[in-house]
């Protein structure tokens, strides 16, 4: 093969790999995994026509993993992974309210509440200064799944623990559930609930 042809083939190879290799490397380099620690928590806050209530799951007893990745090709930021919460673990700090909430959520038929993470609007900087971001999740309650946009606050402390605080208002009716009532309907739980969760996570390779 003439020298000029060899040189042309070499230059063509370099040109092609310059488009392909950095993109694949960049995508791999921008993928991170976060392991959720057991001291994470979730609370559901609501009200009746006479008072307010708060129901908590104070300890998450699993070690699930979330993956965050960014594609160079379309700037899509994906947050994938999910958490599963035992409905029976809800504690409303009142035995009657705890029983009513578990019954309303159909704990005997659907013992788990699931939150599946889907995306973020930006890559977090992970500093000690609280950063506000948003993202989409699927929430499954009593066998019904709905997609919501969630407001997050994220920080990383001096021990490299990532704190992800999420908040979203939902309704019982979003999941075809009827809010609890007592005393012949005199005490009525309002349809609106505020779901707040605090995930403590560590980055892994």
Tell me what you see in this structure.
- By secondary structure, the protein is of the alpha+beta class.
- The chain has a single domain (24-204), classed as Lipid/polyisoprenoid-binding, YceI-like (Lipocalin, Beta Barrel), CATH 2.40.128.110.
- The protein has two helices and twelve strands, in the order αβββββαβββββββ.
- The chain has helices spanning 3-29, 95-104, and strands at residues 31-36, 41-47, 52-57, 65-70, 77-86, 112-120, 131-141, 144-156, 162-171, 181-182, 187-188, 192-204.
- The strands form two sheets. The protein has an eight-stranded antiparallel beta barrel with strand order 1-4-5-6-7-8-9-12.
- Strand 8 (144-156) and strand 9 form a beta hairpin.
- The model is unreliable at 7-29 (pLDDT under 50).
Walk across the major sheet and give the strand order.
Answer: 1-4-5-6-7-8-9-12
CATH topology: Lipocalin
Write out the CATH superfamily name: Lipid/polyisoprenoid-binding, YceI-like
What is the domain total for the residues? 1
Q: Mind summarizing the main beta sheet?
A: 8 strands, antiparallel, barrel
The Cα radius of gyration reads 23 Å
Q: Ends: how far apart?
A: 47 Å
Number of H/I helices: 2
Query: What's the number of extended β-strand segments?
Result: 12
The helix content is: 10-25%
In short:
The chain is α+β, with helices and mostly antiparallel strands and 205 residues long. The chain has a single domain (24-204), classed as Lipocalin. It contains two helices and twelve strands, in the order αβββββαβββββββ.
Secondary structure topology:
Blueprint: H1 3-29, E1 31-36, E2 41-47, E3 52-57, E4 65-70, E5 77-86, H2 95-104, E6 112-120, E7 131-141, E8 144-156, E9 162-171, E10 181-182, E11 187-188, E12 192-204
Antiparallel strand pairs: 1-4, 1-12, 2-3, 2-12, 4-5, 5-6, 6-7, 7-8, 8-9, 9-12, 10-11
């Amino acid at each position: 093969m003439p020298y000029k042809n060899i040189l042309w083939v070499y230059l063509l190879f370099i040109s092609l790999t310059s488009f392909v290799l950095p993109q694949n490397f960049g995508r791999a380099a921008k993928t991170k995994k976060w392991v959720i620690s057991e001291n994470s928590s979730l609370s559901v806050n609501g009200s009746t026509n006479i008072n307010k209530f708060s129901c908590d799951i104070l300890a998450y007893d699993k070690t699930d993993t979330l993956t965050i990745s960014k594609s160079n090709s379309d700037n899509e930021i994906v947050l994938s992974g999910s958490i599963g919460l035992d409905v029976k673990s809800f504690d409303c700090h009142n035995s009657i309210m705890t029983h009513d909430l578990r019954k309303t959520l159909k704990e005997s038929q659907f013992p788990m509440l699931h939150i599946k993470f889907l995306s973020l609007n930006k890559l977090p900087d992970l500093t000690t200064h609280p950063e506000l971001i948003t993202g989409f999740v699927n929430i499954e309650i009593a066998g019904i799944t709905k997609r919501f946009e969630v407001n997050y606050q994220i920080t990383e402390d001096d021990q490299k623990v990532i704190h992800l605080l999420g908040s979203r208002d939902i309704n019982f009716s979003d999941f075809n559930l009827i809010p609890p009532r007592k005393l012949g309907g005199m005490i009525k739980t309002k349809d609106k609930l505020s779901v707040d969760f605090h995930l403590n996570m560590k980055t892994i390779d």
